[in-house]
Amino acid sequence: MIGAGVGGLTAAARLAALGHRVTVFEAAGTVGGKLGRYDRDGHVFDTGPSLLTLPQLFTDLDLDLVPLDPVVRHVFADGVTLDSSSSHPEFLARIAAALGPSAADDWDRLWRRAARIWDASWRSVLQRPVDTPLALAGLAWRLGDLAAIAPGLTLRGLGRRYLRDPRLRTLLDRYATYTGADPRRAPAALAAIPYAELNFGGWYVRGGLRAIADALLERCRSLGVHVELGAPVRAVTVTGGRATGVVLASGAAVACDAVVSNVDALTLYRDLLPTPGRLAGLAARSLAGFVLLLGVRGATPELAHHTVFFPRDYDAEFDAVFGGRPPADPTVFVTRADDPAVAPPGHESWFVLVNAPRHGRAPSAVDWERPGLADAYRDRVLDVLAARGLDVRSRLTFAETRTPAWLAAETLSPGGAIYGTAGGLLRPPNRGPVPGLFLVGGSTHPGGGLPMVTLSAAIVADRIGPA
């Protein structure tokens, strides 16, 4: 196993439970991958995912789950606030109160369509391998499923078809960013994401979501999985056209019957295979993220656990991000857990995220290591928050930045892409280009986010089968 992210650890535990002897090689000094944790002066931050959905996929872990209401607080550019709820009737009531009864009726219509998309996706895509786009097209779709998913329709197009209020369209558009995609180009099938989030609820893990990685590591060890930290893999060994082991950076060669890779698919195809595969030129299309870790004095009752502040021109943000420019007026996503375990008394720990171009020197990227850029953009994000009614600058005890360059270096994610280099719906398959090689994690099918990488691990374990 290459990599001890959530996908890798989940796959390791599943394979060990099937009777396999499993060794995981992790380059970093800790497990979890992007599910990171940072401590400073009594403040604790999740530096990766901040929301758990589809909790039914994690019932075998000992987690202290806290339901969130609202799941997300949306603050629109005109000052209107809308709290989402995992109770559909309650959310409709909140929409009616904030945006009017006709907006609630529109969302109800969209919700019924999203439910059909979710059912079709869950049944036919999310739990099974999809090795090629042709394989996806060749699935035994029910006619009703095809009508619901509407191949060729974008998420933006779906919103325009159902939602008259531009604020609800903006709310729907944001879910494309959950896959690192642009809503103007992302498929309408991504409407399954808000349905899953709101139908099954959004959850916080008390003490921080990093507890998921700790619980997975404990489960792996109880099953006899051997985890080697500080052990980067330099190459995948291919003998007779089949993956037969790995070579560590130390030069040690390790033979095995199957190799499961939890590194980004682009890195695997380009750097670890003896002959770069056809996906070595995989475009890094996924957006990245610019993060502030803020120590804040006092309480901020106007914040929910998750609060998103939208700009006036959402399209301008996507034009900038995918055009290689930090957005001047970005959407700002603030996570502030009401949990005494993550902040000193009388203080709060804020994780602030904005969509950002990936790190690099290509025309669609930004050199985030350019001197002064991170600090200047930190100040810009704080100014944007202040302009939207949340001026925290005088209450800061510290403000640290995490740029896409930092994420690329810490997690080996090319360009610092949050959800893997291939943003959107179709991703590299779970079966590698040579027999005996398999892929798990957010850069492969069925996608990024904690539930999806867990499903990728289940797909791979099922494919490998019992020892």
UniProtKB/TrEMBL annotation:
Record pathway: Carotenoid biosynthesis
GO biological process: carotenoid biosynthetic process
Cross-referenced InterPro entries: Amino_oxidase, Carotenoid/retinoid_OxRdtase, FAD/NAD-bd_sf
SUPFAM superfamilies, per database record: FAD/NAD(P)-binding domain
Alphabetical keyword list: Carotenoid biosynthesis, Oxidoreductase
Superkingdom: Bacteria
Residue ranges of every copy of the Amine oxidase domain listed in the record: 7-464
NCBIfam families named in the record: crtI_fam
Similarity-based family: Belongs to the carotenoid/retinoid oxidoreductase family.
Protein name, per record: Phytoene desaturase
Record organism: Spirilliplanes yamanashiensis
